[in-house]
Amino acid sequence: MKKWREVSAILMAAFIVLGMSAMACAQKPSLPQPTGPITIKVGLPTPLSNPAIPWGRANMDPYLTWIDLFNEEGFEVAGKTYNFKLFAVDDYDSPEGGTAAAKQLVYGDGCKFLAGHWSWSYAAISAITNPAKVIFVTRNGGGIIYDARTQPYNVFGTPAKEEWVNQVLAAHKKFPGAKFGLLEPTSGLTQSEIEQINRQFFDPAGMRYQWEIFAAGTKDFTPYINRFAQEGCDFIYMDTGIDSTLQFVKQRWDAGYKWPVAQAGGLADTSIYIESCGYDAVQGLIGGYFGIWDFKETRVNPKYVSICQQVMKTLSDKQGKPYTYTDWIGWLPSHLLILSQAMQKAGTVEDTDAIMKAIRGGTFDTTAGTFTMSGEKTYGSAIVFGCPCAICIVQGDKAVYLSEYPMKPIP
User: Fold this and answer.
1) How far apart are CA 156 and CA 159, in angstroms?
2) What is the mean predicted confidence (pLDDT) over 330-358?
3) Cα–Cα distance, 291 to 94 (Å, whole number)
4) Are residues 145 and 44 in the same domain?
């Protein structure tokens, strides 16, 4: 009997231990482990609803298609694989829209990185991102005032200011005898910037030029057309977007002038210009070009060329006709490659201070080519990436490669 009691006590103790173990397991479930790439949220504040600004909407399909292809492989940081997820919010190309978009992306969607930005909402977005230590990859140029001390998380992934200057030089290389009419909006370059550009770039190149400044919102360009004609200009390069370009191209043609006209930024689909201005009026129209497979002076990683060509083919198949818009290649894809490579250099995807340290003065291999961040003396921080600065020209209903003038590092 005594032995039976001892056995019963042992069995009871065992059941108690097993029960307590089961309760402990139930109370502390093991955390699920990631089974695939870890997602990094990236925000894109961009104009999506303004009918006069087609670039915001035009970029979305190629951006999303490129990200899908890029994410097939992703990228590794500290032994883990990551990919990108894009959150796009309409910034309405305005300060108020920029503030709302930045707050949504940073605090609503939880994005620690903003990229692909090009609109007129820079200051408003920067005021949100910098206190939050969110890295903001954008452009420089018209309407942008940069302060390295108060904007330590900003990166000029697309050097729009230097790009425009070099694209003018690329056109001068093809039309060396032309006198250039340079048309600048009041919201663009300042007088001191214009004087510096003349002194540093245009005068040494032996360019002949005439600057004219027009008020933002101008619809009638007749006074400027007449002035260029009086000054003997025979090539007009505008530092403005598609809406002003359409008006100027048509008005100069109606006035009987056949000068080549160039716009800042990449050309949209040629059908937009032809429908607005007429087939003959847009022949010889020039604009930025990012058909990296055609570049002659800038080497782009064949892997990136292949991915971008896949995007172009996918979108051509989707719309049932050749997809020709290329400017998207030099913006968000290049910015994301800068960010991913900076994360790899820093060994972290969380510490934006460490990532910015890797960006400043770093060399990156992107869809825009391989360039080293520069601008320490000029901007107060080496956060300006390079650019091929290529241009194309409309022939028939197509835009074809014309020239390029790759950007050199800036002081």
Assistant:
1) 6
2) 99
3) 30
4) yes
| Total count of domains within the chain | 2
Q: How many residues does the chain have?
A: 411
**Higher pLDDT, residue 8 or 215:** 215
Contact status, residue 194 vs residue 142, Cβ threshold 8 Å: no
Residue for token pair 């050097």: 159
- Please, what's the largest Cα pairwise distance for the chain? 124
- The single-letter code of the amino acid at 225 is I
H-helix or E-strand spanning residue 394: strand 390-395
Q: Are 293 and 176 in a shared domain? A: yes
Cβ within 8 Å of residue 331, ≥6 positions away: 59, 116, 118, 157, 158
Query: Is 166 in the same domain as 277?
Result: yes
- The span from the CA of 24 to the CA of 143, in Å, is 61
Q: Which two tokens stand for residue 139?
A: 């452009």
Q: How far is CA 253 from the centre of its chain?
A: 32
Q: What is the CATH number of the domain that holds 289?
A: 3.40.50.2300
Pick from 365, 172, 398, 361: which is nearest to 283 by CA? Answer: 398
The secondary structure of the chain in percent helix, strand, coil, rounded to multiples of 5, reads 45, 20, 35
Taking Cα atoms as reference points, which of 202, 201, 207 lies closest to residue 175? 207
The residue range of the domain holding 318 is 38-161+299-387
How far is residue 394's CA from residue 382's CA, in Å, rounded to a whole number?
A: 36
CA distance 389 to 398: 19
Decide: 216 and 150 in contact? Cβ < 8 Å.
no
The answer to whether 85 and 41 are in contact (CB under 8 A) is yes
E strand residue ranges, 121-185: 135-139, 154-158, 179-185
pLDDT in tens, 143-192: 899 999 999 999 999 999 999 999 999 999 999 999 999 999 988 888 99
Residues facing 235 on adjacent strands: 180
pLDDT at 29: 52
